[in-house]
Write a structure and sequence with these properties.
Layout lengths: L4 H16 L6 H8 L3 H4 L6 H17 L1 H4 L8 H23 L5 H18 L1 H28 L8 H20 L6 H15 L3
Helix pairs in contact: 1-2, 1-4, 4-7, 4-8, 6-10, 7-8, 7-9, 8-9, 9-10
Length: 204
């Protein structure tokens, strides 16, 4: 199925913004990359900043949502949730690399992703607040899963479930930041670390 003009515009513009940064992209660059006139571009956005807002909402904030990232039904065990979480991380990174285009390395993808998150905070502080709400929501989901795992007898009852939820999240964000400086996010290593933490609290 042929992509709509809006989808083509958003895909190309997101690729430009994530590879070159907001300040490194001109309207002329967008016209050249999309083959669209400035008038056609402004049919979908009021300004370059509005276009940036729309594409980062769609390709970054929406995809970063825990409800979009995790595909697990019912009432998963903590072990099942960890598997689904890592699968979601891998899927998100694969989709992001596909959007960025051929020849982009995992390291470049990871660094570009963190860079655009920082640009959101500077250029669109209201969206940065939404991002913080997304992280809070993610922590709530982890907490719910861990609490249910305590109730089921899967993990120890003496753990601080809120602190443990924060620890799992910190593992992801810490790993994502550190790896972005080297070779890119190593999701398999992240999974091993999470399973090591799980082994420390699971009932044998």
């Amino acid at each position: 199925m042929r992509k709509s003009h809006k989808e083509e515009l958003f895909n190309a513009t997101f690729r430009l913004f994530i590879l070159h940064g907001y300040d490194g992209v001109s309207l002329g660059d967008i016209e050249k990359a999309t083959g669209m006139s400035r008038g056609a571009i402004f049919h979908y956005a009021d300004s370059k900043l509005d276009l940036f807002r729309q594409v980062v909402e769609q390709y970054v904030l929406d995809r970063q949502s825990i409800d979009m990232k995790i595909r697990v039904g019912g009432d998963p065990s903590l072990r099942e949730f960890i598997d689904a979480y890592i699968d979601g991380v891998k899927r998100t990174m694969t989709e992001l690399m596909t959007l960025m285009g051929e020849g982009v390395t995992l390291a470049e993808c990871s660094r570009a992703y963190l860079s655009i998150i920082q640009q959101i905070a500077v250029l669109l502080p209201e969206l940065s607040e939404r991002q913080q709400q997304s992280i809070t929501r993610e922590q709530q989901v982890w907490h719910q899963v861990i609490s249910r795992s305590v109730e089921r007898g899967e993990v120890r009852s003496d753990i601080d479930t809120e602190l443990m939820a924060q620890t799992f999240i910190a593992l992801f964000y810490g790993r994502a930041y550190r790896d972005s400086l080297i070779t890119g996010l190593d999701a398999d290593l992240l999974k091993r670390q999470m399973l090591q933490l799980y082994a420390a609290i699971a009932l044998k």
